[in-house]
Amino acid sequence: MKKITTIILLLFLVGFLIQTLDAEIIEGAGASFPKPVYHKWMHKYYELTGVKINYQSIGSGGGIANIEAKKVDFGASDKPLKKDELDESGLIQFPMVMGGVVPIINLEGLEPGSLKLTSALLVDIFQGKIKKWNDINIQKINSDLHLPKLDITVVHRADGSGTTWIFTNYLDKVSPEWHEKVGYGKTVKWPAGIGGKGNEGVASNVMQIEGAIGYVEFAYAHENQIPYASLQNQSGNFVKPKIESFQSAAANADWSNAPGFYIVLTDQPGAESWPITGATFILIHKEQSKKDVASEALKFFDWCYKYGDKTAIDLNYVPIPDNVVKLVQEVWTKDVTCMGVKLWK
Amino acid sequence: MKRFLNIDFTFKTLSMSGALFQVILLIALLVMLIYTSRLAISEFGAGFILSSEWNPAEDERETYGAAASIFGTLVSTFIAMILAVPLSLVTALFLVELAPKLLSNIVGYGIELLAAIPSIIYGMWGLFIFAPFIRKYLQSPLKGLNEVSFLPEIPLFEGPPMGIGIMTAGIVLALMILPFITAVMRDVFLMVPQVLKESVYGLGAVTYEVTSRVMVRYGIQGLIGATFLGMARAIGETMAITFIIGNVHKISASLFSPATSIASTIANEFAEAYTQPLYIQSLMFLGLILFLISFIVQFVAYWWVGKLQKSMGVQ
């Protein structure tokens, strides 16, 4: 009896100790799109400062729901909230990092970027209107390629995702027909094709099926060396997806006139701009209840902006330009408070 | 007070609480499912089961229907059962009657290990290795056969062979429940009294007659039980088929076409459905339907076994 009591008491003690060790943890949750770069940043920051940040990639929807319910200290979402939605929940949002969504193709002997597609072709393919690769419309702008008489298999996301949101947002912008029939969102009623789970699912499905076309984040296509297509942008140029073309899309965006930093980077002007670029956002409350946690979180984000560029670029993400960082920090100074005390100077 | 110190009483109370707890849990689950899907139930009603329209748009186009998910669940389970049950039966009989003792033990052990493999492993194996294999060696030849001009076109084999789809999902599901059903059937056959078998052999029966006429009939209740256990597992299977079923909300006659099952729909779409109340409630409604399907399957199993008990007398 005495033995059992001692063991139970020891367990309680251990549990209590573990609890106190966990004191300085910042909790975040949301989009899976930036997970690789967020995790790397958080790891590096922990090594430098000992401050631990815990990030669960449960999807943009989960991130928004959790921060609205105050279950986490910050939320992450690929889909930006509109100003009135932000005000209603007492949140501010700011862009953390950017990336591109690229169409990936499985055709034998295709070099990355060699297949050119216009926005109209992309829409028609994803609507299931163009059924074979040697269709005259595709062949017309790709006279240098030999396209086989192969069925086009469309692969989209089966699960809800910010990547889908960005991709369908682009299709919605460039095609009134897509806007009317399908629209955009984290999940849509796809007119054609099969669904894969996650970016990984889409990529593996595309790689397995000859003649398949899908869409993934650029980082994914690059890491797995899956051939991607070049797209025609607003200026009429066919551009390849790369850091420079994502940056071009971001540079032309007018961040200072966007309330709540609500900017969607698809179909942006600019000769070199990649048409399907997207930013991913962080959401935090204006009125913070835990002063220390909030200050530490802001310090972390500041560190990422200042020192995280190389890590982001290594992972094929595009860092936020300095002039935008300044605007973001102005918002921090103005809006983030804890019981009336401003938390960021 | 003295009554409580009576060990019998304590034991009876504890075990009764355990049993009651499970019933309460079941009722609680049912109540929770109904409560969290009330919006969807009032919005769609029974029409939910008949409609295959699934549109998670965030505007007025938003609508949901379970027909495609239910179809996928039932058809993939059906394919799995047709493939797995006969194979399990034959394997179990082989292991008990025909195999030499050593082989029977080794294979038996192997089957039990197979039954313990997590379903997600089957899913990943299905996606990376099995689906392309099926596409190349089963679906493409079938498609070729379908396209031969003088033979009638079978709608079962229409459409491009992708590997991924309801056919592969059904086959992988069969492979998954096969070891499970075999293990249970083997145990059922092992319980057939030696005396019974010997007396039939003594009457001059051959092995085939002993197994089919005597052993199967003796263990029929257990065999049906094993079948329904496998079926229950197949109906609710999520990770094994999410990767390979194609995840498309459409009903199609072709075996090559992609589909979706109730469990995969929920697994795929739940995390991002937070922000739309009707979306989440429709997913819970799907969960309720799955719950009811499993309930019906169990009920049918009990009824069938009960009928057999009556027709064969009390065994």
Number of domains of chain B: 1
CATH topology of the largest domain in chain A: D-Maltodextrin-Binding Protein, domain 2
Stretches of chain A where pLDDT is under 50 for at least 5 consecutive residues are: none
Q: What CATH architecture label of the largest domain in chain A applies?
A: 3-Layer(aba) Sandwich
For the sheet with most strands of chain B, the description reads:
none
The structural class of chain A is alpha/beta
**Secondary-structure element order of chain A, as H and E?**
HEHEHEHEEHHEHHEHEHEEHEHHEHEE
Main sheet: strands, sense, barrel of chain A: 9 strands, mixed
Q: What is the CATH architecture descriptor of chain B?
A: Orthogonal Bundle
Q: Radius of gyration of chain A over alpha carbons?
A: 23 Å
Work out the helix count of chain A.
14
The fraction of residues assigned to DSSP E strands of chain B is under 5%
Into which percentage range does the β-strand content of chain A fall? 15-25%
Task: Please identify which CATH superfamily of the largest domain in chain A we are dealing with.
Answer: Periplasmic binding protein-like II
How much is the average pLDDT of chain A?
Answer: 88
The rounded Rg of chain B comes to: 24 Å
Percent in helix of chain A = 40-55%
Q: Report the strand count of chain B.
A: 0
